[in-house]
Amino acid sequence: MDYDAIVLGGGAAGLAAARGATAAGMRTLLVTDGPPGGDCTFTGCVPSKTLIEAAADGLPFDKAMARVREAVAAIAATEDENVLRSEGIDILRGRARFIGRTTLDVDTAEGADGQRLSAPRVIVATGATPLLPPIPGLTDVPTLTTDTVFDLTEPLDSLAVLGGGAVGSELAQAFARLGVRVTLIEAADRLLPGIDREASALLTDVFRAEGIDVTTGATVESVRGDDSGVALRAGERTVTAQRLLVAAGRQPATAGLDLAAAGIATGERGEIRTDDHMATTAPGVFAAGDVTGRAELTHAAYAMGRIAAGAAVRRWRRPSWDAPIPSVVFTDPEIATVGIAEHEVTAARVRVAYLPMSEVDRAVTANATSGFVKLIAGPRRLLGNTGGGRLLGATVVGERAGELIAEPTLAMTSGMFTGRLAQAVHAYPTWSIAVQQAAAQFFGEFGGRTARPARMPEAGGQH
Length: 463
Ligand SMILES: Cc1cc2nc3c(=O)[nH]c(=O)nc-3n(C[C@H](O)[C@H](O)[C@H](O)COP(=O)(O)OP(=O)(O)OC[C@H]3O[C@@H](n4cnc5c(N)ncnc54)[C@H](O)[C@@H]3O)c2cc1C
Ligand SMILES: NC(=O)c1ccc[n+]([C@@H]2O[C@H](COP(=O)([O-])OP(=O)(O)OC[C@H]3O[C@@H](n4cnc5c(N)ncnc54)[C@H](O)[C@@H]3O)[C@@H](O)[C@H]2O)c1
What we know:
Number of domains: 3
Number of strands: 22
Largest sheet: 7 strands, mixed
Strand content: 15-25%
CATH topology of the largest domain: FAD/NAD(P)-binding domain
CATH class of the largest domain: Alpha Beta
CATH superfamily of the largest domain: FAD/NAD(P)-binding domain
Oligomer: single chain
Shape: globular
Number of helices: 13
Distance between the termini: 60 Å
Bound molecules: flavin-adenine dinucleotide, nicotinamide-adenine-dinucleotide
Helix content: 25-40%
C-alpha cells in the first residue's frame, strides 16, 4: 500500500479528514482536483458572506467584487498546499477514480498517465455541484450559478433568481442592495421552506420592503433567452431579467468516480450512503461532507471529516454523527436554527417559549427589532419537564442570530436542563440575554410571556 489513508477532495470535509488521519499518525495523501478550501472558500461561504457584508456597507458593484476576491485570497492562503504540507499531509492535484475497493487511478493536472495509488483507508469528500433542474430551455440560455456568479465584473441591471433556499435568499438580498433589480421565484409556498413559518414570512416582508420581487408557490417551468436577457415562465407569470441565477440546490459530486468499482452504494439523489460512523457500503471506504447528502454546511462537512478519519483509524469506540448541527442563513435579519422547528413537533408535552426582538432591550437600542427567539423544549424520560425539560430546537431571527444560536446548540449538545439557560447570568444589554429571557418563560411568566404548548402542524406554527 502506498499510504495509510487517501482522502479525495480538498474542501472542508477533505481537509478535516486529512488532518484527522495525519494527527492519528497515518501517512496521508490528499488528492484534489481543485485548490484546497473547496466550495466554501472559493464559490460558497467566503465569497457570499463577503458580498453580503460589502452590499450592507453600501459599496458599489466593482468594489464589492474586488473585496470578494481579496477575502477569498486571504482565506485561501491559510489552507493552501504549502500550509498543508507543513502539517505533514502529502498533496496530489488531480482527479481520482476507483479501480478497486482501495485502489485509485489519479489523472494529474499535467495530463500525465493515470497514477495508481492504494491505501487500506479511503475517505471520499468530493463535495457537490450546483444542480440545474430539468427545465425546458434552461441549458440553452447563459445562466449563472454559484460557480460563476462571483466572477461577475460588470454591474447588472436585473437578476432573476430561481430558488428561494439559502443561496437564493442570501444572494437576492445582496444583489438587491448592490442596486440590481431582483426577482426571486420559489416553488414552495414560502422562502427557506424548511424553517419556522414565521421566520419565512418575516423574511418575505423584509425582501418586499427592500424592493425584491418575491413570488412563492410558483415553479419555473420553462426558460428562454439569449446573451441580452432571459424570460422565465412560472405559473401565470413571465419574468424577464438581464441574467438568471440558478439556485435550485446542489447534487453530490460523484460523476467519474466509478463508485461501483469499489462497491460503494449511492442513494436516490446520487449521494454516497453512509452509516453513523461515515462508513460506506465498501469496507475501508468512508465518505464525508456534501457528497453524503447530509447537512450541506461547512461546519457539518468538517465534523463529518473528523468522524470519518476517527472511524477509519479506530476499531473500537468509533466516533459517530449525532451532534445537533446549527445553521445560519446570512440574510438581514439573520435566520439561525438548530434542532427542530415548531412545525416539526410530533410529540406531546412539548412547549414553546417565544420572545419578539421588540421586547429585547439591545434590539430596541439598535433600532433592529425585527425578529424573535423561539425555544422548543420537551420532557425528559422519567423527569418530564422538570428543570425546563430538554431543548429540542431553537430558531433565532435577528441582527446577531448567528451568534445567539451557539448557546442553544451547546444546551442541546450537552443535554443540559433548559433551565440552565435561564439560570446563567447574561450581561445586560446584550443580544444573547434574549436567550435567557426566553428560557425563563419555561418557569412561569417573564415579561408578560409564558411558554405555551407547541402547535402541531395542522394548527400552524405561529406564535
Ligand atoms: C453560495 C454558497 C454559500 C454557502 N454558504 C455557507 C455558509 O455560510 N455556511 C456554511 O456552513 N455552508 C455554506 N455553504 C455550503 C458549504 O460551502 C458546503 O457545505 C461545504 O463547502 C462542503 O464541503 P465539502 O468538503 O463537502 O465539499 P467541497 O468544498 O465541494 O470540496 C470537494 C472537493 O473535492 C474535489 N473533487 C471533486 N471530485 C474529485 C475527484 N474525482 N478527484 C479529486 N478531487 C475531487 C473538488 O475539486 C473540491 O475541491 C455555502 C454553499 C454555497 C454554494
Ligand atoms: N448560510 C448557509 O449556511 C448556506 C448558504 C448557502 C448555501 N448553503 C447550503 O447550500 C445548499 C444549496 O443551497 P440552495 O439554496 O441552492 O438549495 P436549497 O435546496 O436549499 O434551495 C433550493 C430551492 O430551489 C427551489 N426550486 C427548485 N426548483 C425550482 C423551480 N423549478 N422553480 C422554482 N423554485 C425551485 C426549491 O423549492 C428550494 O427551495 C443548501 O443545502 C445549504 O445548506 C448554506
